[in-house]
Each structure stands twice: as structure tokens, then as C-alpha cells.
Design a protein that fits this description.
Elements (H helix, E strand, L loop, with lengths): L9 H8 L5 H8 L3 H6 L3 H9 L6 E6 L6 E7 L7 H4 E8 L1 E7 L2 E6 L7 E5 L4 E4 L6 E9 L4 E8 L1 H5 L11 E5 L7 E4 L12 E3 L2 E6 L1 H4 L3 E6 L4 E6 L10 E5 L2 E7 L6 E6 L2 H5 L1
Antiparallel strand pairs: 1-2, 2-3, 4-5, 5-6, 6-7, 8-9, 9-10, 10-11, 12-13, 13-14, 14-15, 16-17, 17-18
Length: 282
């Protein structure tokens, strides 16, 4: 096999040069030839290259009417010193899809047609896209890296219509399932049918666990549902006492789990920070 560059060992070309390129420049390099595409498509290269990129929040918004809807995915670079025009960078524009979950730069997308729903995974940095046909009968509740195996996994729950109408396909059980991205195996049942309420709620990934704030409209009390992505099991935490129960959002700020909630007049925002997570999780 010919070297990627004459007179330059592949070890240097890949791990000292290509690995340092920004995503746009890397995309151009992948188009040079098949050898360059192969060298920059390995799991090891993609993981290391991704680890060198800054962590940026994603914004997603919809453009167009209901019948012809496009999804714009935009990264927000909040570094100081950047002018407003440079803070927002377009990542992708997709037709007929909406963004469900994201983890480490990977996006889980879903078609807008509820009656004929299909899922896909997208890596916008490499413009790679693949359908996820094994999970069409499920709702995607969360996405995470399973650190013990290095696998990216999806936390799933059977579609509500199938559960409520007792129309579960043969072999599909009520309760949570786990699907390993890239696997040919069907989703694996792990139980926890009582976690059904997390299906449509936003979550945040923090220190190896997924967190959902569950307001009283879901379970008649304020709690935070926690999914340990290593043990793949649920527990719950007591949520702060809020001025408007059920009206709050979880996020991570300065390495701490944080919750924000507005008052009744929407004039002030209260922020709660969990300062001693290790003690709570013990």
C-alpha cells in the first residue's frame, strides 16, 4: 500500500498532521483519494480527532411550513472576543427530519412523519449518515457512551401507541430497552417499565448518568430521574422546591449539575446548583 504522502511516514501524516485539522479541512482531505478517506475513517482516528475539538452547544430550529420543513443545526461558539457573526456556524440543513438526541458530536435524527417514523444517526463532522431500522418501534429517550465497552448506546422505550393498545410485536416487552449503535442485534430489554415518563422529556448527561427533571404533571411530585449509564439502571433524586413546580430545565454549568426556573411573572430566574454530587450519588 502506497504511503499517504511521498517521503512522509503514515504515522506522522496521520497522527501529527491530519489529526490536527479542523472538521472542514478534514472533510476536504477525505475527498483527495481513497487512501486518505480510509486513514481518516477509522474509529481510533475519529475518536482522537473528536477529542481535540472544542465542546460547543448545538442550536436547532425549523424553517419553512409544516408540509415542507427543514432542520437547521448550528453550533454556538461562546468564546470571549468573537464577534456575533462568528459565534454561530451552520453544521447542517436537513429536509424532513428533526433532531432528537446528541452525544459527542453524533446526532440522532427522526423523520417528521409520525405515522411512518424512521431514525438515523449522523456525524456532521464527516458527513456520514446511516439509518437505524432496528429501532423504528421505539421512542429514543437518551443517548450515551457506555464507558466499560466504548460503545455508544441508545436508551429506548416502545412507542406509546403500541404499549397502550397492547400491540407489542412478538418478542418486544414493555419497559426500557438498550440498543448499541453499529450492532446488528435488536434492542435489549432491561426492564424499568415505570420509567415510561422520561420518553418525551429532555435530559442532560452528567458524570456518566442521564438526568431528567420530572415535574408534578408527570408523577404528582418533583423528582429528578437518574439513569446510570454504566450499570444501566434507574434511581431518583429529590428536586429543589421551585416557585413554579414543573417549570424548570436541567443543564451543566462549570462542571456542576444545575437547574433553572422562572417565577410566575417570568421576570426573574432562579438557579440551583448541586455542589456535592458525590455525596448525593453515594
Amino acid at each position: 500500500m502506497a504511503p499517504l504522502h511521498p517521503g512522509l511516514p503514515d504515522e506522522i501524516a496521520i497522527w501529527e498532521i491530519l489529526i490536527r485539522l479542523d472538521p472542514k479541512a478534514l472533510l476536504r482531505c477525505r475527498a483527495v483519494c481513497r487512501d486518505w478517506l480510509r486513514a481518516t475513517s477509522t474509529r481510533e482516528f475519529l475518536v482522537v480527532h473528536h477529542g481535540r475539538q472544542p465542546t460547543l452547544p448545538l442550536l436547532n430550529g425549523y424553517n419553512g411550513d409544516v408540509d415542507d420543513q427543514t432542520l437547521d443545526i448550528i453550533s454556538l461558539d461562546h468564546q470571549t472576543g468573537l464577534v456575533a457573526a462568528d459565534q454561530l456556524q451552520s453544521i447542517a440543513r436537513l429536509d424532513g427530519m428533526h433532531l432528537l438526541r446528541s452525544c459527542d458530536g453524533l446526532l440522532i435524527l427522526c423523520t417528521n412523519n409520525i405515522d411512518d417514523r424512521h431514525y438515523a444517526i449522523c456525524n456532521p463532522a464527516t458527513r456520514q449518515y446511516a439509518p437505524l431500522r432496528q429501532i423504528d418501534d421505539f421512542e429514543v429517550s437518551g443517548m450515551y457512551l457506555h464507558r466499560s465497552t466504548g460503545e455508544y448506546r441508545l436508551l429506548l422505550y416502545p412507542c406509546p401507541a403500541r404499549v397502550m393498545n397492547a400491540e407489542l410485536p412478538h418478542g418486544l416487552h414493555d419497559g426500557c430497552h438498550v440498543f448499541t449503535l453499529g450492532s446488528c442485534e435488536p434492542p435489549r430489554h432491561i426492564g424499568w417499565p415505570e420509567a415510561r415518563e422520561v420518553m418525551f422529556e429532555a435530559n442532560v448527561l452528567f458524570r456518566g448518568s442521564l438526568f431528567w427533571y420530572m415535574g408534578p404533571e408527570n408523577i404528582k411530585k418533583d423528582i429528578i430521574r437518574v439513569f446510570n449509564t454504566t450499570a444501566e439502571s434507574f434511581r431518583q433524586m429529590q428536586a429543589p422546591v421551585l416557585p413554579r413546580p414543573g417549570e424548570a430545565n436541567l443543564f451543566v454549568m462549570d462542571g456542576m449539575l444545575t437547574m433553572a426556573s422562572c417565577n410566575d411573572a417570568a421576570a426573574t430566574i432562579g438557579i440551583w446548583v448541586l455542589q456535592n454530587y458525590e455525596s448525593e450519588a453515594a
